[in-house]
Amino acid sequence: MKRNCLVLSQYRNGSEYNDFIGKFYHFPGNKNKSYLGQFENLPIEFVYYEPTANGGSGEYFGYGKIIKKPFEDKREAGQYFVEIEEFKPFNKPVPLKDLSGCLREKDSPHYNSQNAVRKITADLLEEICLDGEIRLNF
User: Fold this and answer.
1) What's the confidence (pLDDT) of residue 15?
2) In sequence order, what are the residues at sequence separation of 6 or more whose Cβ sits closer than 8 angstroms to the Cβ of residue 42?
3) Do 53 and 105 contact (CB within 8 A), yes or no?
4) Residues pairing with 95 in the sheet
5) How many angstroms from the chain centroid is the CA of residue 51?
6) pLDDT digit string, tens, across residues 48-82
7) Cβ-Cβ contacts under 8 Å for 41 (sequence gap 6 or more)
8) Phi, psi (rounded to 5 degrees) for 123
9) Predicted model pTM
10) In angstroms, what CA-CA distances link 84 with 4, 17, 100, 119?
11) Would you list the DSSP string of 38-87?
């Protein structure tokens, strides 16, 4: 079975979204920007990534799963939530660049630093998790 894997950009402090790390991910699903299509093929495994903009750390910091479809935010039109399952914070954060200074997502055709939700391969997800000292059980 093909695994569906994503990177979810998430600020740990000062996010403009109504996120709850390890519980709910809040994202736009409106005509200006929509990530709804990224959450169609369940289940999804993901790693959290904190961007460097706005004082972020530029590192991956946790793993989780999404097993339920997104639901609408009743307070903000055009916004959605997905529920996070099996969240595991990394024992040590994983930098965006590997030890040789290359972007970990450099070979991904879906990489665009402007996209808060983006696809990655299962191999890359596992590599990031191992570097974060989280062992996935399959």
Assistant:
1) 79
2) 4, 66, 67, 68, 69
3) no
4) 59
5) 11
6) 999 988 788 899 999 999 999 999 999 999 999 99
7) 4
8) -60, -45
9) 0.92
10) 15, 15, 32, 17
11) GGSSSSEEEEEEE-SGGG---EEEEEEEE-S--EE-SSSTTEEEEE-EEE
